[in-house]
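Researcher: Please translate sequence to structure tokens.
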Amino acid sequence: MDDAELEELPRGIALAWGVAASPQRGPKREMSVERIVDAAVELADAEGLAAVSMAAVAARLGYTPMSLYRYISAKDDLVLLMQEAAIGTPPPIEGESWRARVVAFHDALMAAYLSHAWVIELPITGVTATPNSAAWMDAGIAAFDGTALGDDARLSLMLLLTGYAHWSAGVTAGMTRRAVASGRGVDEVNHAEDDLLARLVTPDEYPSLHRAIAAGELSSGGDPFRFGLDRILDGITTHLDRIERGEVVAASLPEPASVDPAVAADKRVKTATKGVREAEKALRAAQKAERQARREAQERIERAKSA
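Model: Translation complete:
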């Protein structure tokens, strides 16, 4: 990225990437963007995101708000940098299989959210273009290394897993806040609420929910989110099996259907579409042959090692 492009970056993004110009005035020796962000994160951890303002952070540091504005010019930029600091960078995502790596990625991301639960309260307005966010996305995509999935499918699945971790962490954080406010443990609060729900839910009005409550499912004490994650992984496994059988192409995001039937009916378009379908079929056959060749090569290598 050249200097002109750097100048066009939003201030918060430029600060996150460390390419923003330093202020010309202000208490440089005592103040820094990092110190301001650390103080804001500490404030949010202690009192919640609503307590964070430029004035509150300045007071925590013993400076005037104007001193902060020389370093971070808007509260939105401060919140962006707080989020970046709170989620940190992903730990090594390890595992012998893609499934183990995906679980490790999900659990690490959920732990990062829960370590600073106010992050979950931030509205999702798109992909955050900051270094740590990019590192998490990269780790989520890399978890699928060694599979037949194309880059587009890996990106899509990374977003799915990130969303599930975000939602699961949000529910978990809400349960914890409720327990802290009541002065009781999470399990105790959950059991009390389950008992209340059991008294209110009748088999006539809510037959399926009543049956689940009667079976003790709401108070089982197990991880309520792991089952859903496992089913997501089962679906990915099924998709990979279909790729293995040559039923779908590895680069798997569907193309949008034509909005104009007349275009689809055009003779040249139909001929081109037929060519695409034949090419896809040939690609699936080639991918299957490649995987078979790799397996055979691996077997030969293993036999040679053990000979």
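Researcher: Any highlights?
Model: The chain has a mean pLDDT of 84.
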